[in-house]
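Example with several molecule types.
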Amino acid sequence: MSLIALTLGDPAGIGPELVVAAWQAHIAAKNAPADFFVIAPPEVLLPMLEAKGLSARILADPQTLPEPGDTCLPILDCGSYSGFEVGKPSLASARIAWAALETASTLARAGKVQAIVTAPVAKANLHACGFAFPGQTEFFAHSFGVAIADTAMMLAGPELRTVPLTIHIPLQDVPRSLSQEHIIRQARVVARALARDFNITHPRLAVAGLNPHAGEQGHIGQEEINIIIPAIGALQAEGMNISGPYSADALFSSAQRKRYDVALAMYHDQALIPIKTLSFEDSVNITLGLPIVRTAPDHGTAFDIAGKNQACPRSFLAALAYARTCLDNR
Amino acid sequence: MSLIALTLGDPAGIGPELVVAAWQAHIAAKNAPADFFVIAPPEVLLPMLEAKGLSARILADPQTLPEPGDTCLPILDCGSYSGFEVGKPSLASARIAWAALETASTLARAGKVQAIVTAPVAKANLHACGFAFPGQTEFFAHSFGVAIADTAMMLAGPELRTVPLTIHIPLQDVPRSLSQEHIIRQARVVARALARDFNITHPRLAVAGLNPHAGEQGHIGQEEINIIIPAIGALQAEGMNISGPYSADALFSSAQRKRYDVALAMYHDQALIPIKTLSFEDSVNITLGLPIVRTAPDHGTAFDIAGKNQACPRSFLAALAYARTCLDNR
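Resulting structure tokens for the full complex:
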């Protein structure tokens, strides 16, 4: 059986509430086999579980999971607990988040887990601790020896899958960050992952233009002509079912969405605006191109509402559901 | 009574079908008073009307409109007809489109019409004829002696109103096209128009960031800190109900949309992606800041389907409905 590890995220944020909500959803599903466990210091979760009339089982080995019907949350201790305040991100809370990631990575590399669902972390304190990666995606890519350019961030919701080809960079840096090579490399990652993880053997990729109206034949910008169209041509020559560039404003309409399996966007908001406009609470971040499945909710640590029972777990539960689907398809 | 002029647009495109569809909708509404007429060479419309069992009344003066129940489409001849081929944009078809705009402008400046609904034109042939404006919006701004920076393009649909502060420019030119002055000037235009045309006396304006996550406190770009936040502060100091910058990906979710009357976007696709994702066929382009009301559908000439009875008139009918609403509110 495939096993899924949930990492706690920054425990000063809403991560602890999310993993407990996932376990409550598991209990509510009645007699389903436990296919996941949580990587966290038990000190963080035990008081929360107790307050809800639940308990935990501390795992020595992640392969001994509870029997169906057992309501004890399986926890694998990642250590690094030295106290922290809920709602107040700190070096201490960031160290816990990091420790959970390291444990997850070690288990995945040893073949003991096949998927990781990560709760949100806060980057500033992680970096202050010495965490050397821009984010969790880059951490896992490095763990598995995969070049970051051979991974891709897919946002998936009930109505749309989309991949931004540039991510957390200033808008003014986007045009110079695009190249034929980059688009080609990312499109290959996406097409392979759709076949492997989503069981779409000949996926249809639609590519957005960078400029308004996809540049209007060069009247509003040259990147379509110089970069995007040649990249699409090269990929078509490989036999890929890819088309574009399409005017980004029309690409995400309901009629257009029926014509592709995934939209490649040129920058962060070109992908994130439509996915969050269509389905704010049910969309999921999936890292494509890793040897394991990795999914995450499409939101941050939400320190402002942490510990107040206000966190909406829908995106985290959707991330867990996507991890199961991808494992089933592999 | 307020009068609305519909301009034909490029007659080689779907404009003729749109204005006839508007008249058919008027007839179907039974006994409604005719509050609009069409500016076009009768030669273009008469055969289409005849094919549908309808006829026309050629107006000498736009103030003599049909009585309720009369099914004859009122047409004001703008001249310039020299033949053209449907589906084939040409200098001849562009000259007709231009003539209709000139007639509409003349009537509006003389106080004979209070609103103009424009069918789509094609810019390349207009420019080849000598039309000296980037588009219809700039033509009307110039006609009324209004600086283009004192007009704004609002996209309005059933679920969202949004104004892009830069429009048809390459994405790489967007950051340098933004300034505090420009944001302040545009926000004032928008706030005044919402009060005058939409009867929202103290409108709530929400401002999008330029960069991913609205720049994350300067970690992903500086424009929020250097330009957008000071502009918002200056407008708040004037008493405007304006806030932001908000992360653009979250700004258009259903929960966020309830918190503002209009979203100011920094560039074309930041505004157009959410409006077209939410309501592709019912969104409308409204020029704010003119002495008259001017609305237009949110699509182009569609030469490829012209004359085939395939054009969807919903956006054009919505543009006519918005024109009526704005006139009622003035």
